[in-house]
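Researcher: We are triaging several targets before committing to wet-lab work. For this one, the compound of interest is zinc ion. I'm pasting the protein sequence and the ligand SMILES. What I need is the predicted three-dimensional arrangement of the protein with the ligand bound, expressed as C-alpha cells, so it can go straight into our comparison scripts without reformatting.
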Amino acid sequence: MQLPTHVLAGIFIQYLVMVFIPLPLWLNLCLIITFCVISHFFIDAFAKITYHPTSRQTGRFWLSWHIFVFAFGFLLIVIYFQDYWIGMLAANFVDIWDWYFLRNYARRTSQPEWGRKYYLHPIADKIRSVLFKRLPNYTHSQIAILLELFIYFGWLVLFILTL
Ligand SMILES: [Zn+2]
C-alpha cells in the first residue's frame, strides 16, 4: 500500500503499545519496532486489493494519486513526527531499505541486480501467496484507491474527534 497507510499503521501501533502494554521504555520500543516492521509486510501483502501498479503509468490519474499520497504522507509525518517518529520510521523501514537504499544504490552503480538477495519485500509476497492468494487483484484498477481513501477518511474523523 502507500506511504500514508504505513505511516498511520506506525502511529497506531506505537500508540497501542505505549498505552496498553506497561513495560519498561526500552522493551516498549523493541515491541513497537518489531510490530511496525511486521505490519509493513502484512499491509503490503494486502496491496493487491488496492490500486498499486508496480511501475509508473501514463496519464493523469497515476500522477495525481501519487502526488496526493506523498503530500498526505508528508503532512502526517510533519503532524506526528515529534511523538511518533519511531513508529512511523519502523513502519516504513522495509520501503526505505529496499527502494531508497538498495534499489537506489543499484541504479547509481548501473547494476540493476545488485543487492536483490537482501530485498525484504519477498517476505510480503510470501505472506500474500500463502494467506491472501484468494483476494482479487486490483493493482491496476483505479477505483481500488477507495480502500486507502477510506482508511485516510477514518484517520480524519479520529483526528477531528480528538482535537
Ligand atoms: Zn513496501
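Researcher: Any quick observations?
Model: Residues 3-92+123-161 form one domain.
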